[in-house]
From TrEMBL, chain A:
<dbReference type="GO" id="GO:0016887">
    <property type="term" value="F:ATP hydrolysis activity"/>
</dbReference>
<dbReference type="GO" id="GO:0015658">
    <property type="term" value="F:branched-chain amino acid transmembrane transporter activity"/>
</dbReference>
<protein>
    <submittedName>
        <fullName>Branched-chain amino acid ABC transporter ATP-binding protein</fullName>
    </submittedName>
</protein>
<dbReference type="InterPro" id="IPR017871">
    <property type="entry name" value="ABC_transporter-like_CS"/>
</dbReference>
<dbReference type="InterPro" id="IPR027417">
    <property type="entry name" value="P-loop_NTPase"/>
</dbReference>
<dbReference type="GO" id="GO:0005524">
    <property type="term" value="F:ATP binding"/>
</dbReference>
<feature type="domain" description="ABC transporter">
    <location>
        <begin position="5"/>
        <end position="237"/>
    </location>
</feature>
<dbReference type="InterPro" id="IPR052156">
    <property type="entry name" value="BCAA_Transport_ATP-bd_LivF"/>
</dbReference>
<dbReference type="GO" id="GO:0015807">
    <property type="term" value="P:L-amino acid transport"/>
</dbReference>
UniProtKB/TrEMBL annotation, chain B:
<protein>
    <recommendedName>
        <fullName>Branched-chain amino acid ABC transporter permease</fullName>
    </recommendedName>
</protein>
<dbReference type="Pfam" id="PF02653">
    <property type="entry name" value="BPD_transp_2"/>
</dbReference>
<feature type="transmembrane region" description="Helical">
    <location>
        <begin position="266"/>
        <end position="285"/>
    </location>
</feature>
<feature type="transmembrane region" description="Helical">
    <location>
        <begin position="136"/>
        <end position="160"/>
    </location>
</feature>
<feature type="transmembrane region" description="Helical">
    <location>
        <begin position="6"/>
        <end position="26"/>
    </location>
</feature>
<keyword id="KW-0812">Transmembrane</keyword>
<feature type="transmembrane region" description="Helical">
    <location>
        <begin position="97"/>
        <end position="116"/>
    </location>
</feature>
<keyword id="KW-1003">Cell membrane</keyword>
<keyword id="KW-0472">Membrane</keyword>
Length: 238, 288
């Protein structure tokens, strides 16, 4: 079986700064993959290339059989690769409902908008009573739920999450991770970035450690969790 | 209130509707693209000449020309965005300002070369008709123009608040990367926003020609007015544009009625400075 996502020798940067120095990895349909690494390692940069917000300098990204390396972001969403970005990037002055509706902007997802809305609200029931409030007025955790909800509204084949637990109350982090597990159990492929790596690795079939723009270690989530080097570097276990 | 002052207020409200529409166009472009379109007035001048010549050549009623000038300026705006402004995206912001400034000079000079600097007046058969409102006599054309501007504003507000297209434009204005991640073609929305903002001055230009002179530099008047209105109503605030337009219309009309000579423009600038000094976020705007 050919993989859902295949990244080959990806290089990218900003201006004179070169950030990614040849990243390669693959993810199959239905799998959860986690990418972990320190601040500034290049995780978000990798994701920005996948979703088309940043143009790669070299390398190829094949998604669902198509070369998306140079496609604009909106075409990539259309193909089913949908990202929940770092910082969430919601529409703060619009209601939660409008934010979710915008997730179903494209024609295909739009046909199934009301089903998707029901599904999102059953994942995140707390949003039900916030639907008419401006998204910017919600707490960080609830905004993260809106961001994940908005991405689900696009009916992704691959859901890409950039640090969904960043700056969020622990209780809500748990809720978000429970939902990620549910989505994965339902067969959705997920690519996840986390600094808080215990949660991420324990539910991943594949995991990569990225340092200074290169993958330095890979394996299943379990393997990495059990690796003494990872334990020392990221989990504070001596 | 004296009849004279009352008449001034009514006339002000009526012209204010046009200011509001012109400013709305400027605000849409600014809100979505962060570009202040210095060619806004010059593009309105295009709409005015178009209306003037359509009337002169084929006797097309200026109010009918709204449906020609609006679409023509829409297309012109789209072309300007695609070929002049889009290539500048990602470079320093002042490049886009300079492009619109250059376009303004180009259009004004081209009009001067083609049509001479003469002031022209479009005389419809109903130009002299008046309507009595209370103690005031108001030219019929002023009322028609006001209604046209109001209708165009209402259509735009409806599109922005209620349609999928409008929602996508607001989304891009608020969070462009977020919008792209929803599958919205951001470049397409930019083009549309500039085109819609330009169509506003096409409509406004056609609508004012029944009572406003046409000349190559006539756009300056409306440029200044729309900057003041945008500042009054709040940069980026759509409903603020209409309110600001009406306020400016009234203020200028009263000023013209009680102040000597050509204090109109001076008054506009005075309002502009006063708002910037005391309420820089505009009357409805919350944050800069
Ligand atoms: N827009 C940008 N312009 C310039 N440099 C950037 C930009 N975004 C990121 N960088 C730089 O690129 C490098 C990688 O950043 P990136 O955001 O990919 O890291 P990350 O692994 O996601 O880190 P974090 O865990 O802090 O989110 C960093 O050195 C960062 O300073
Ligand atoms: Mg990051």
């Amino acid at each position: 079986m050919s993989s859902l996502l295949a990244v080959e020798d990806l290089q990218a940067g900003y201006g004179n700064l070169s950030v990614l120095h040849g990243i390669s990895f693959e993810l199959n349909a239905g799998e959860v993959g986690a990418m972990v690494g320190a601040n500034g390692a290049g995780k978000s940069t990798t994701l920005r290339c996948l979703s088309g917000l940043l143009r790669p300098r070299a390398g190829t990204i094949i998604f669902a059989g198509e070369d998306i390396s140079n496609l604009p972001a909106h075409r990539i969403v259309e193909l089913g690769l949908v990202q929940v970005p770092e910082g969430r990037l919601l529409f703060p002055a619009m209601s939660v409902r409008e934010n979710l509706m915008l997730g179903a902007f494209l024609p295909e997802p739009r046909k199934r908008m009301s089903q998707s809305m029901d599904a999102v609200l059953s994942y995140f029931p707390a949003l039900r009573e916030k639907l008419d409030l401006p998204a910017g007025s919600l707490s960080g955790g609830q905004q993260q739920m809106v961001a994940v909800g908005r991405a689900l509204m696009s009916r992704p084949k691959l859901l890409v999450l950039d640090e969904p637990s960043l700056g969020i109350a622990p209780l809500l982090v748990r809720e978000i991770f429970e939902n990620i597990e549910k989505l994965a159990a339902g067969g959705l492929a997920i690519l996840l970035i986390e600094q808080n790596i215990g949660n991420a690795l324990s539910l991943s079939q594949r995991a990569w450690v990225i340092e200074n723009g290169a993958i330095v270690m890979q394996g299943s989530g379990r393997e990495l969790l059990d690796d003494p080097r990872i334990q020392a570097a990221y989990l504070g276990i001596q | 209130m004296s009849a004279l002052l009352f008449e001034a207020v009514v006339a002000g409200v009526l012209l204010g509707g046009v200011y509001g529409l012109v400013a709305l166009g400027l605000n849409i472009i600014y809100g979505v693209l962060d570009i202040i379109n210095f060619a806004h007035g010059a593009m309105m001048m295009m709409g005015m000449y178009l209306t003037f010549w359509l009337f002169r050549a084929w006797g097309i009623d200026p109010y009918l020309s709204i449906f020609i000038a609006g679409p023509v300026l829409f297309v012109f705006g789209a072309v300007v965005y695609r070929f002049l402004l889009d290539p500048m995206r990602g470079t320093a912001l002042q490049n886009q300002f300079l492009v619109t400034l250059g376009l303004s000079l180009f259009l004004t000079n081209a009009a001067q070369a083609m049509f001479s600097p003469d002031f022209r007046v479009l005389q419809t058969s109903y130009a002299q008709e008046v309507v009595q409102i209370g103690p005031a006599f108001i030219p019929l054309t002023r009322i028609f123009t006001f209604l046209a501007a109001l209708a165009a504003t209402a259509v735009l507000l409806f599109i922005f608040q209620r349609t999928r297209l409008g929602r996508s434009i607001r989304a891009v204005a608020q969070q462009q990367d977020g919008a792209a991640l929803c599958g919205i073609d951001v470049r397409h929305v930019y083009t549309l926003a500039f085109a819609i903002g330009s169509a506003c001055v096409g409509v406004a230009g056609a609508a004012v020609t029944p009572f406003f002179y046409v000349s190559p530099t006539v756009g300056d008047v409306f440029n200044i007015a729309s900057f003041v209105v945008v500042v009054l109503g709040g940069l980026g605030s759509m409903s603020g544009s209409l309110l600001g337009g009406l306020l400016l219309g009234v203020a200028v009309a009263i000023g013209a009625a009680i102040l000597p000579g050509s204090f109109k423009e001076v008054l506009m600038f005075a309002i502009f400075l006063a708002v910037l000094l005391f309420k820089p976020t505009g009357l409805l705007g919350s944050k800069a």
